[in-house]
Amino acid sequence: MRRDGGGGDDEQFIRSLRPARLDECIGQARVVSGLRISLQAARERGEALDHVLLHGPPGLGKTTFANVIAAEMGTGIVTTSGPAVERGGDLMGILTNLSRGDILFIDEIHRLPRAVEEFLYPAMEDFCVNFTIEKGADARTLRYALKPFTLVGATTRAGLLSSPLRERFGIAHHLDFYPVDELTRVVARSASILAVDVTEEGAVEIARRARGTPRIANRLLR
């Protein structure tokens, strides 16, 4: 789990090229338009954004959009992944440390253990968690109130999500592969950030080889 920074050289390289705000995003027009409407509505209500599910092939910008959502809402973001949250206690520690309106980004959310997933349900619905103290006849269930937050879940395999979890996301967007013209613009933007000279023909060639994926395009540029 991390709030910011961290990661190896490749991750830092990718992070340096990510758009920070919606206006900087290239492509995924339907996702950008839908998020813009949802974000504006949440800001006008003065409430946390509804929970967001982002699904699609790897490298298309799910992590980028999670960070953009946090920036647009002016909140912090805590990042983890399904395999990293092994027990309900792990999730409890994350949830109780969130500030009001924070984004909790869970990558590979389809890999959450079922027990952890069920622990998440009341947190998503009622902003509370239930936990049991003592054992046997003395066992008691306590309810702990959480600050309102937004869960952004990302998955490459939406079909593996259970129906109860999927239904708790008020906003869901599928990310599509990028056409060559949009990837060419991505390459040109990245080249500008990196101060790398690339011709228009070179940018188009990189875009054609990137298999519709900005992450691949940026690595080819590198």
From TrEMBL:
Gene3D superfamilies linked to this entry: 1.10.8.60, P-loop containing nucleotide triphosphate hydrolases (3.40.50.300)
Example GO molecular function: DNA binding
Pfam families: AAA_lid_4, RuvB_N
E.C. code: 3.6.4.12
Top-level taxon in the UniProt lineage: Bacteria
AAA+ ATPase domain sequence ranges: 48-181
Keywords: ATP-binding, Helicase, Hydrolase, Nucleotide-binding
UniProt GO BP: DNA recombination; DNA repair
InterPro entries in the cross-refs: AAA+_ATPase (IPR003593), AAA_lid_4 (IPR041445), DNA_helicase_Holl-junc_RuvB (IPR004605), P-loop_NTPase (IPR027417), RuvB-like_N (IPR008824)
Name used for this protein in its record: Holliday junction branch migration DNA helicase RuvB
Native source organism of the sequence: Candidatus Segetimicrobium genomatis
Encoding gene, per UniProt annotation: ruvB
